[in-house]
Amino acid sequence: MERKHADRSLSAVGETFQLTSQCVDEANGIFAVLKAVKGHGVPLHVRYQTPGDDSGVLCESNECQMNVDVAQRSGIASYQCVHIGAASFCGSSVERVSLEEGILTEMQELFRTEERRTGHASEEEDIADHRHGYPPKGLGLRCMVSYILQKKKIPAVLPEDMRVPSALKDYPQHLCPNETVCQDCPGEVLLSDPMLITHNAKILTNWCIIKDVATYSKRCPQCGMFYRYQEWKDHLHNFNDHIILDIPLCLTLRNLLQVHTSMSRAVEFLRLTTGVEFPPPDTMLDAYLQFEALTDHDYKYSCPSCGDHPPVVIMGVHKHAASSLSENDIEKPPESFKGEVSVEEFWESLSKDMICRGFVANGGHNPFAVPPSYHFWAPWIGKNTRRSDTVLNTEFEKVNDETAVTEEKLREELFKLKDDVIRTLCTECGVDSAGSRSDLLLRLYNEMKSKQTYDKICSKIRSASGGWGVIMCPCGIVYSLKCSLRAESPQDFADLLLSWHHMPNIVIYDFAQALAKHTNLRASEKLPFSPFEGCLVEPTQANKELARRGQLEVPLPWLDGNSRQADPHGHPVTGSADHYVLCGRSHEGIADGDVLRKLSLVPQLADRVSSQISERLFAQMKKNDYFLNMSLPSTHLYQMRNIIHHYNENRADKLSTGSTGSSGSNLLTEAVLESLTRSRDDVMEDTILTSLTS
């Protein structure tokens, strides 16, 4: 007799009573069985493939697995739990249903989001989860970044309506790639249907943040290439599928950087303007630099007045931008390295680094990251100015000659270091690192009496970055830009000049004699600086005495265009094959060897070319040090080239506007007039900025 109120939730299963079950995979023997009669209808998965074959029988329930284990150890090999028993009586199976790829992708995204939210996804699970997902990794990521760099360029000159911010602009809520066929596979291979990446993306503008934007990707079924939304014609720049900047905002950030505003201050300005929170400054900077990497800048670094090959240049170093890289931070070159670097390859790698930051999470592995190294670290020289795409960088040959550094000089250099570098140096030297800057310097000065500490401090200072070296024309346009990894020396400028297609006739540099000797030693078969090793006249005692008395004048008529018959290997502008290294006025008369290199000895240059023009540029660039020096070396490098490019473009626009179609005959006259105009502009800009910040 059966009891009326017996609990049948887990009672013995037979033909008269069984838990509801359904075969979901007949080939593999997978069943869905109701967990219990009472309560919510929760299913369990059961594998029941071959009766009598233990390896083909398994219940998902942990409790049932424990019961089976106890039964087998007790000698009851035929024991089956109620769920497996129910599966053995199941006589029905479901129809096979194929889910669409878009639905599966959306489910995958939901599971991924939940795992990240709860923190349950391990690194191995995340890699497995993304093996066939978006964003791609490994080779798939490299291919996608390269495609975006090559095919999704943003014009350098944008339509007028795109450059002006507008609060009335309507943006689409669904951002889907425009591609319909694979751009890499032969023939016309149709891409997949759009696959949802997120429906919580944001469009950032100058006025507000537009939320709940859906972004999609597509994939080639043949090669596996992914495509994402990247359409500048919609006035949008997609950074990472979750953060999209409208292009007017990108231009606002560009202009703020041009007036020395850090990204953190720019983000705060946007927050105060809109009343909403923007992403962190680091994310905004990565998004902006990705926009610049995709913008089709020519980076020509050339003056409309002086042309691609200026006959007169001024050189200088911006030391305030020096970083605190130690010798161990810089990758050593291979033995086969000869000091030659592909400039296009290096800067393309940096562009890919900036683009890839939209595909890797903070701290994630960026396959395009460019660490500082001696063998893959290049200056920038305009395409029409340089000799070829291979440029020189021989910093690895620099020798630290600590014995040549006096204690007084070392104290001066030590005083210039930043507080955190001084504190780190104290720790490395075993000196107490607590206290004020003055306390730390005093302790280091006392410890310098020890040879070991002296050598360590000297090595630290000498291995620090030498800052930015620039070559400019008299109009103030930058032609070459180099970030030195170690202390600046004439060797850095020799690298730049020997990479030029045409050596300038006149080079103005603070350490003229050292530059001339070093450069001529490196190219002794055809001396770059001659005649007289770059001096204006033969360095006899009589000529030196005349120069000191102010009784020597050396006219160079070819600077005014009154050239004699052009030399076979002469400069394309002047026709002269003479090349001189001269000193600026602030350094005249300091060294006996430079007395015949005085700028004032040449009437075509005296009072017409300012050797201080580089200092005026550096005075402006110094205002950027507070944020550039805090960034990664690769970010610093890329951002500096971009800032100088826009500086050059603004200067070139002023030159072109003020030009009256002049020829090379009055080139230097225009240059000095532009220098004076620049000085007034600098004063006016400083006045405006001071009034805004006071």
Question: What would you note in describing this structure?
Answer:
The structure is a single chain. The chain is an alpha+beta fold and 694 residues long. It folds into 5 domains: 21-88, no CATH class; 101-131, no CATH class; 134-294, no CATH class; 312-398 and 466-663, no CATH class; 418-463, no CATH class. It is built from 21 helices and 18 strands. The protein has helices at 62-73, 82-88, 101-118, 123-130, 138-151, 160-163, 247-258, 263-274, 281-294, 343-356, 407-416, 419-428, 437-447, 451-463, 490-498, 512-522, 541-549, 613-621, 625-628, 633-658, 667-693, and strands at residues 21-25, 30-34, 43-48, 57-59, 174-175, 195-204, 209-219, 226-228, 236-238, 243-246, 312-318, 340-342, 380-381, 390-392, 467-472, 478-484, 506-508, 580-582. The strands form 4 sheets. Strands 5, 6, 7, 8, 9 and 10 form a 6-stranded mixed beta sheet that branches. The model is unreliable at 1-13, 113-132, 400-404, 660-667, 671-681 and 683-694 (pLDDT under 50).
